[in-house]
Design a protein that fits this description.
The complex is a heterodimer of chains A (about 550) and B (about 450). Chain A has ten helices and 26 strands. In chain A, a hairpin with a 2-residue loop joins strand 2 and strand 3. Chain A starts with about 45 loop residues before the first helix and ends in a 5-residue tail after the last strand. With about 550 residues, chain A is α+β, with helices and mostly antiparallel strands. In chain B, helix 1 packs across helix 2 and helix 4 (about 125-140) packs parallel to helix 5 (about 205-215). Chain B is α+β, with helices and mostly antiparallel strands. Chain B is globular and about 70 Å long. In chain B, the strands form four sheets. In chain B, strands 3-2-1-4-5-6 form a six-stranded antiparallel β-sheet. The chains are: A alpha+beta (about 550), B alpha+beta (about 450). The interface between A and B is large, with 90 and 92 residues.
Chain lengths: ~550, ~450
């Protein structure tokens, strides 16, 4: 359930109403266009020094001591993560800075199996006494759970690995000064406010650095650092006379990247367009509801992929392990390899190796190497997301490497890899899709989103909507949402953009689990055409 | 596992003193949160994971001449605290001016709130296992598959600054939620509750409620098509939808013309927008449902009526926005009490159902999202117990439905009001009644169970 921000896409070509033609603007930064390789991208050169000088190394002995203490207390398996998060956020509102914050969160989490059950304990206090305490607590919890377990936890085998990896970046986002970040945002806000009729602008940039050192009782040791950046800008136009208002989010995406991603997004150059769009949303025509084709731009479709395919192919959901909160799935183990959930042109791939992907990694939180595998092939459901304690349930020999915890104090569990829709072989452009559509709507950007607990019925909105008549974009629309059933939606997919139209979108805050945890994940896709129920959400207002 | 407080008042004062001693800027504030939390999850009829963690966050805000920055960290030794202060001051010195910066608050007086239950603070793995065992027993007896979560915490929040402000709040919280499903996957029921005392949560009774709903909803559910229905929204469903309205209760967005409560040249305070029987208030010192008596900026939280007999009485307002309007600031709520103006009007859930000739009973709402802020229009789906009502009786299960509806319309279209109860959830403390509401809009049918 993403609740974070925005998507990429300099929609500049959609410019003023008179200049609808040039679609070159779909081009994103180069990092979003590289086809996925078979393994994680090469570690950032500058990152190697970060690993060797890391302050986590000073606490590695404590992590080993935690595992040893757990084993002595009777644990048959233990792993320990030292996790350090650094987060920085600069926000501006209209003509001034509204917030500057930096935070650091550092601690140690210990996971054990004792008597065949899981236990977990964590502390931010890095002292031998605290370590002994969490080892005792984790084992005691496991023993209590074991009293109610009909059968013990079984871990699929994994190779013992040792390694280090730093996500590729060109410019360390923490090397840019707060003052420079604030000035960039203020310049973008000024550029948007210069458009008459725009009353307010909010802009922000978040920079995140996640570092973790994982040790397992089997002998694996992996040390990784991830850089993520998330710029955002929203313009609000207000018509007080008519009592109406409309907000327009920039479609820039969060990315596993350095500051170069923010530079490439060029918020200042794009801001006037976002401001214009806010005004045009205010004065756009209400959509006429009904069943009709929609063309979903990558900036909108990524989230629909996330909700309808990403979550339904999580094996823990299908097994009922998330039934109390996130829910179960319309997919079940017996449907693997047989169930038709989309048209022949629908291929969806899970991929934790994709450059720029927010869920890209070299190893997961139990040291399983990252990989790329099929979830849906030619419209047929073929693959699941798994961890070491889930793989056995579908008789797979090894884990797909999906274990993740969002901090030192969180219990690791199955989290989503990047899940991406593959581009079409015909090489269509977005104009080709529009040109082939007689009566429909083009939807870009992320709006409201909601889906049921088995991932059947969804309803999404967007940021900007164009009416399509007779193969042309005719006018902006407002109050648009689209509703469908996941299987009917993917079965109706009849046209895909080609490789050149493929883009990556994503979220830093996909919520799942209890207590709820947040996962970062991206989804690549071309623009694609579907049949849906288009709704008017304006209620006559 | 007899547990001391995660941060005793004297420890908090020592930490604050150590941090402020390192301050050079005239305006430096400290926020400390220390929280020991533990949980046990269960699913597919057995425990899955459990965990316990002590989290500490120390946050320092330094301000000079309107330049301000906040830095936070996990460590609380004196050297780490001094480092936080230095970094906050260094960042603030480089920050552009924020003209909306308010001067620091001096010493304040807060409501006395007893929100920490020592017994809840002492619960260990055995106590959690006992709760889960009760829920699993009910499921076994009813031949259902149980999942759920029991969690509890012991938390301290501290605010302090160089101008003499010192606020300390200790609280415990506990919650249990459980979902029961029939083995064939055609029926599902949910129940949940929370309190500051774990002992208030009756695991067996909650599990039975979830089990009854699962059993009652099993089999082939009837399809009711999209349309406007009279609904009986159970308290959890009311709270789920109401939260969108609560978060819209801000004066600034209203005054700036970007809220449901905007009016030409101002806001809607004083207007009769809702059913005249409705009262919406907050109160940090409620004895059974206590909450933090101070706002994040240190302002005291007083009891306040947001809606009184259907009339909008107040909108929250920051110190900056309030001073600009020459009005006193109104901090946003930390607890919400929705109720009938006259408690004698409140009815039991059974009575509410009895009064409905044809309608839909909704247990809870799921994946709720704002659709259109002009009307506070939200969307989401019914879940884990949705039934048809005919002739004042529950007539059978129906397929889940997606709603597109506004909490403002919900409070306007009230037919009858039930007795308030504390609902589950770790956000606002919410004590709300079940409501009978007419013309509630369902937009599509869901196959999800």
């Amino acid at each position: 359930m993403p609740s974070s921000r925005r998507s990429f896409l300099a929609l500049a070509g959609l410019g003023s109403a008179s200049a609808l033609a040039p679609w070159r603007a779909w081009a994103g930064p180069p990092t979003s266009r590289v086809p996925a390789p078979a393994s994680a991208p090469a570690s950032a050169d500058a990152g190697v020094a970060m690993l060797t000088t890391s302050r986590l190394l000073a606490d590695e002995g404590l992590a080993r001591a935690a595992i040893d203490a757990a084993r002595k207390a009777g644990a048959s398996y233990a792993d320990c993560r030292l996790v350090l998060w650094r987060r920085e956020r600069v926000s501006v509102r209209d003509d001034h800075v509204s917030g500057i914050g930096r935070s650091e969160e550092y601690g140690l989490g210990l996971r054990v199996i004792a008597d065949g059950a899981w236990g977990f304990a964590a502390t931010a206090e890095r002292t031998p006494k605290a370590i002994a305490g969490i080892a005792r607590a984790a084992v005691a919890m496991a023993r209590q759970s074991a009293l109610l377990m009909p059968q013990p936890v079984a871990l699929a085998p994994a190779q013992v690995v040792q390694g280090g990896w730093v996500s590729p970046f060109q410019v360390d986002p923490f090397s840019i000064s707060i003052a420079d970040k604030a000035e960039l945002l203020l310049a973008a806000a000024r550029a948007a406010l210069a458009v008459q009729g725009v009353a307010h602008v909010d802009a922000s940039v978040a920079c995140l650095r996640e570092e973790k050192l994982l040790l397992t009782s089997e002998g694996s040791r992996v040390h990784q650092i991830f850089f993520r950046v998330a710029p955002g800008l929203t313009a609000t136009a207000i018509d007080r006379r008519r009592g109406r208002f409309a907000a327009r989010d920039h479609e820039v995406q969060p990315m596993l990247a350095g500051w170069e991603h923010v530079t490439a997004a060029d918020l200042v150059a794009g801001a006037p367009q976002i401001a214009d769009d806010a005004l045009r949303k205010l004065h756009a025509a209400p959509v006429v509801p009904g069943k009709k084709p929609v063309i979903l731009a990558p900036s909108n479709l990524w989230l629909t992929i996330h909700e309808s395919i990403g979550h339904s192919t999580e094996l823990d959901r299908a097994l009922g392990l998330e039934a109390n909160y996130a829910g179960t799935s319309f997919l079940t183990a017996d449907k693997t390899g047989k169930f038709k959930l989309g048209s022949e042109i629908v291929d969806l791939v899970a991929d934790r190796t994709q450059p720029g992907g927010l869920a890209t990694t070299a190893w997961d939180d139990e040291a399983v190497p990252s990989q790329r595998w099929d979830l849906v092939r030619k419209g047929t459901f073929v693959g699941w997301q798994t961890t070491r304690d889930l793989a056995g349930a579908i008789n797979e020999p090894t884990s797909r490497g999906c274990l993740y915890a969002d901090g030192y104090a969180s219990v690791p569990f199955a989290r989503m890899p990047n899940v991406s829709l593959q581009p079409g072989a015909e090489g269509y452009t977005t104009e080709d899709l529009i040109g082939a559509t007689d009566d429909g709507v083009l939807i870009t950007g992320r709006g409201s989103w909601s889906i049921d607990q088995q991932r059947y019925n969804f309803q999404f909105s967007g940021q900007f909507f164009w009416e399509i008549k007779h193969g042309r974009l005719t006018r902006p629309l407002r109050d648009v949402a689209y509703q469908a059933n996941s299987v009917e939606f993917w079965s109706s997919c009849d046209m895909l953009g080609g490789a050149d139209t493929y883009r990556l979108g994503g979220s830093l805050s996909d919520g799942k689990g209890e207590p709820s945890q947040s996962n970062s994940v991206s989804h690549g896709c071309p623009p694609a055409r579907f049949i849906v129920n288009v709704l008017n959400t304006g209620g006559g207002a | 596992m007899s547990q001391p407080s995660p941060l005793k008042p004297e420890e908090a004062r020592a930490l604050v003193k150590a941090a402020l001693a390192a301050a050079k800027f005239p305006e430096v504030g400290v926020r400390i949160s220390a929280r020991r939390a533990a949980h046990m999850r269960f699913a597919a009829g057995a425990p899955t994971t459990s965990g316990e963690a002590l989290r500490v966050e120390v946050s320092v805000t330094a301000t000079r001449d309107g330049r301000s920055a906040t830095v936070s960290g996990t460590d609380r030794d004196p050297a780490a605290l001094a480092q936080l202060v230095r970094e906050a001051e260094a960042l603030a010195a480089l920050a552009p001016v924020d003209p909306e910066t308010e001067p620091p608050l001096g010493p304040q007086t807060y409501a006395r709130v007893a929100a920490r239950d020592p017994k809840t603070a002492e619960v260990g793995p055995e106590g959690r296992t006992e709760v889960v065992a009760r829920a699993l027993k009910v499921a076994r007896e009813a031949k259902l598959v149980a999942s759920g979560l029991v969690e509890h915490d012991d938390a301290v929040t501290v605010l302090a600054n160089r101008a003499g402000l010192f606020a300390y709040h200790a609280s415990t919280s506990a919650s249990l939620t459980t979902t029961m499903r029939t083995p064939d996957g055609t029926g599902s029921g949910w129940a949940g509750a929370s309190s500051f005392r774990l002992a208030d949560l009756d695991a067996t009774a909650l599990a039975r409620r979830a089990a009854d709903k699962a059993t009652m909803s099993a089999g082939a559910a009837e399809v009711l098509g999209p349309g406007a229905y009279t609904v009986v929204l159970e308290a959890q469903a009311v709270a789920d939808l109401l939260s969108f309205l609560v978060f819209s209760l801000g004066a600034r967005a209203a005054d700036e013309g970007r809220s449901f409560f905007s009016r030409p040249g101002g806001n809607a305070i004083g207007e009769a927008l809702f059913d005249p029987r409705i009262v919406l208030r907050s109160d940090p010192a409620d004895p059974n449902n206590p909450s933090t008596p101070f706002a994040p900026d240190g302002l005291p939280l007083a009891p306040i009526r947001w809606i009184d007999r259907g009339v909008l009485k107040a909108l929250s307002s920051s110190r900056f926005w309030a001073s600009k309007q020459n009005k006193p600031p109104v901090p946003g709520p930390r607890s919400i009490f929705l109720e009938a103006a006259d408690p004698a009007q409140a009815k039991d859930l059974v009575e509410l159902v009895r009064g409905v000739e044809r309608g839909v009973l909704v247990t809870r709402l799921w994946y709720n999202r704002m659709l259109e802020p002009r009307q506070i229009l939200a969307t989401g789906l019914t879940r884990d117990g949705t039934f048809k009502i005919e002739g004042g009786k529950i007539a059978g299960p129906i397929k889940n439905l997606r709603y597109n509806e506004s909490p403002a319309a919900m409070l306007k279209n009230v037919v009858a009001i039930g007795r308030p109860e504390r609902v589950a959830g770790d956000g606002l403390v919410s004590v709300v009644p079940p409501l009978v509401v007419r013309d509630f809009h369902f937009a599509s049918v869901s196959d999800a169970v």
